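Think of the structure tokens as a kind of shorthand, similar to the way a musician reads notation: each symbol stands for something richer, in this case the local conformation of the backbone. In the example below we present two proteins back to back. Begin with the first one, reading the sequence and then the tokens, and try to describe in your own words what changes along the chain.
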Amino acid sequence: MKMGFIELANYKVISFDKIPSTQTYAHDMIADGRGADHIAILADAQSAGRGRYKRTWVSHHGNLYVSFIYKCEERDARLAYSVGVAIAETLIAFGIMPTIKWPNDILIDDKKVSGTLIEYSGRFVIVGIGINIKSNPTVNATYKTTKLDNYVSLTRDELLNKLMRNLDKWRATDFQMVRARWTDLAAGLNRSVKYRGETAELIGINENGALVLRRESRYFLVYGDEITMQ
């Protein structure tokens, strides 16, 4: 395990050739009293990468695996949308037109290219982001993935630099603007989705970051759960 330190775009970047998980390392830093605002933990590969609901995140060399530590005094459901927009805008800057699957999975041509894991620890929040650049995992016939190499030629460091700047921009942006941009980029808006096994219509998000669904004449709010596109 080789470690390096650099300063980039107002971040202290701690880089590894391979570790079990950038997200776990960030948690350990905070637990040890080494956590601080604007730290990025970067790995060339992970042996135990994970996504939401403790799913395995396949982490071969050539892709972007990074966890960001930010000061955060309280949980905020709106953060997921700021992160999703920041990632999408990063890809747009390189000539790619993505969509966002609620809350912040990034799709290209309806195939997943990026996932995010947001976890809170003490006075900090850890934002873990994986973006497929050189390779993409084969999961199953219905779960489609893709990689940036299919669309554009760029380096991981170019992508990281732009991503960090966009994260700072969109985290500081008024949520009304974030909400509008997320809505512009949202996949499945005003279409049928599956929520807890039943069909509903995806209406949008409200001012507090809740997903708004409609089933017949009934509207309801969803926080931190999963929906499936149909």
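Once you have a description of the first chain, move to the second and do the same.
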Amino acid sequence: MLSTDLVLSREEVQQIRDRWLEQSKGLHQGGTPILTSGLKVVPWSTPAKDAQLAELSKLSAERICWAFGIPLQLLGLANTPATSTEALMHFWLATGLGFCLNHVEQGFDRLFGLEGEPRDYTEFDTAALLRSAQKDRIEALARGVQGGIFSPNEARAAEDLDVVPYGDEPRVQAQVIPLSAAGSIPAAPTPLVPPSAPVAKSYQDAVQLDVDALRTRTKRIAASNGAAEPQARVVRKVRDNALQRPAGR
């Protein structure tokens, strides 16, 4: 609100109002108006009596919510927001809404002459109130299908999707068995350990083992290639540190 001690005409008041709006509305919102002619900005304050009345009105609304079990977050009266919408709806169903729905269900039972629980009774589906975020909902349905609680078509029906062939039967993984059948499961076969190579007792024995291994490998390679088995050749020793090649070489 703007105030001044000067006496202004209607045209002057309208001119000042137009200049103020030019600096505070539309594209010029947030501008800095320059006040002249002794104009002063007077903040609009709420009298203490009105503030007390507003506080009493808020307190009355909170007590009404407490009496009927309505969460304050639904009416914007709470100082702290709820952790999630699903948790808020769970709290409302447990404290106030579930009580009212139970009385309405019993009224329908009397109206249609139903016997009541556990045979004929009315029960409202509150699953729509508990619909959480899509990611959490899909993860819960996927775990239910993998654990054999829901069939694929039941999970698809919860998301208003069409049924698929062979999707009416729940399924579990092959390794999920009852504890009573655990004793009849054969033990896993132990892997075959190849025999260890013989240990040579002396240097001559070690040399002989190497020669035998080379001969075995040569025979295996020749057999795989279709070649004839090599003939044994005689090696004659003529000196202590020299070997003579076979005849014909």
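Compare your description with these statements about the second chain. The two ends are 123 Å apart (CA to CA).
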